Amino acid sequence: MLAAGVGAYAAEPVKPGRDAGALYAQLCANCHGAQLEGAKAPSLRTDQLKHGRDDEAMLRGIRDGYPSNGMPAFAKTFSEAELRGMVAYLHEAATRAVDPHLQASHPLPTGTQHSEEHAYRIEAVAEGLLVPWSISFLPDGGILVTEREGRLRLIENGKLKPEPITGVPKVAVRDEAGLMSVVADPDFARDPWVYLSFSDPGDEEGTAMTKLIRARLRGNALVDQQTIFALPREQYQKSYVLFGSRLVFQGDYLFFSVGVRGMETDVSLHAQDLTVPMGKIHRVFRDGRIPPDNPFVDQPGAWPSIWARGVRNPQGLAVDPRTGHLWESEHGPRGGDELNVIKRGANYGWPLVTYGINYDGTPISDKTEAPGMEPPVKHWTPSIATSEIEFYTGDRFPQWKNNLFLGSLAEQTLYRFVIDNDQVTHEEILFKNIGRIRDIKTGPDGLIYIALERVGRPGAVIRLVPEADAP
Ligand code: HEC
């Protein structure tokens, strides 16, 4: 629970709310149709809602109605939180009706792909991987790849080596748990450290926790293993979801994310509690030491590596090369996925403010913003299941330089965002439906490399290669 004295926010209990789907069936379906398809009232599925599709317009419409046009006001029926829940439900149900999630991934497209700025083709670099979660380049052009089942692989001279690298710690593999990020040290050529994050199995059956180690890569083996981050084993949680686990270097610092590690309300509140590392972004030196200027080092009881709090399940971390600002993407529950700029010591609000609702349709919070909580740069309802983000820093796609690429799992989509002044000023969808995008990296050759978990076929590492002809 929340610990006093470490700047924790008192959580106002959310009044128990009713399930949005059930309320829709009971109160709305006879006019708008069971599948939102429209009946005696208009369809709620289309993108061209008469009164607007943004959250505030929809919320106002449901609360105040359009009585002269036959839409009753529901202000007396719903709490504020239930109104939010209903809006999230309508977005989700409308999308599901048009674009069912988790369809089998399509084969890789052949031929030239066209986009706003560049024409490119998609090439397979390595195939036959099991849930490739993360990739990292070595100075000699080799690519390290983690497979979630617990294997670290090497793509050498364009070929996936059949035998995995040895010396990888034993990992818990279930639900979302497994071997996750791999990052080679920026000075790998001088000292070959490799950093790994994974779900460490606890002593007690059914428990696990995010853990971070580094080890030197010698030949085909990891040696000299050191722990960079771990929780005391008696504090491991009984849950195999929401590990966070993304890693990114900035100069001498290593940032990493730890998810809240469970779905229950009291577990979610860990994100606000500075005495535990869950639901946080952390910053350490490369060897795990705590930087003396971390924001909470002087607060008694606070976990000293915390850099920012109030995050749920951060699956993406990247540093904008122009500003040095740290960006993060995270999974909301049902709805409420977020893209954030992470500031030193800031609070991102989970679970006290959110655009999402519980998986059972009940509300989490009646607030989407509050004083002292950082709003997201962008948020998604329904969830697209955001994963890794990457600022493109290569030269092969000049018009994409410094654009932010974001992958999604559920929606199997690659997004490109133009970022200006820490805001998204333009966005484009590059492709959809060829796989759940787990990782995106600029290669040393300036090409864009992507780790793809494919639904209904083995995973792959692919790359985008520019085509000479104009788009
Ligand atoms: C008695 C029939 C009726 C019921 C019940 C009803 N609606 Fe409506 N609703 C309408 C009509 C008619 C309109 C179109 C209003 C207009 O044209 O301005 C509408 C419009 C809306 C709009 C705005 C659509 C747009 O195009 O901008 C939303 C959102 C909406 N309803 C949601 C709901 C929800 C959620 C419920 C249940 C809690 C509900 N409605 C229940 C009749 C109904």
Q: Average pLDDT across residues? A: 91
Q: How many strands in all?
A: 24
Unreliable residue stretches? 1-14
Order of helices and strands: HHHHEEEEEEEEEEEHEEEEEEEEEEEEE
Strand-pairing-aware structural class: mainly beta
Amount of beta strand: 25-35%
Structure overview:
The strands form 6 sheets. The protein has a 4-stranded antiparallel sheet with strand order 1-24-23-22, with no helix packed on it. A 4-stranded antiparallel sheet has the order 2-3-4-5, with no helix packed on it. It has a 4-stranded antiparallel sheet with strand order 6-7-8-9, with no helix packed on it. It is built from 5 helices and 24 strands. A hairpin with a 6-residue loop joins strand 7 and strand 8. It has helices at 20-27, 29-32, 55-64, 80-98, 265-268, and strands spanning 120-129, 132-137, 143-147, 151-156, 159-160, 179-184, 193-201, 208-218, 221-229, 244-250, 253-258, 280-285, 306-309, 313-319, 326-331, 337-342, 378-380, 386-391, 404-408, 413-420, 423-432, 436-442, 448-453, 459-466. It is mainly β. It has a domain at 20-98: Cytochrome Bc1 Complex, Chain D, domain 2. The protein is 10% helix and 34% strand. It binds heme C. The site of heme C (HEC) has 20 residues, from helix 2 and helix 3. Heme C (HEC) binds next to helix 2 and helix 3.
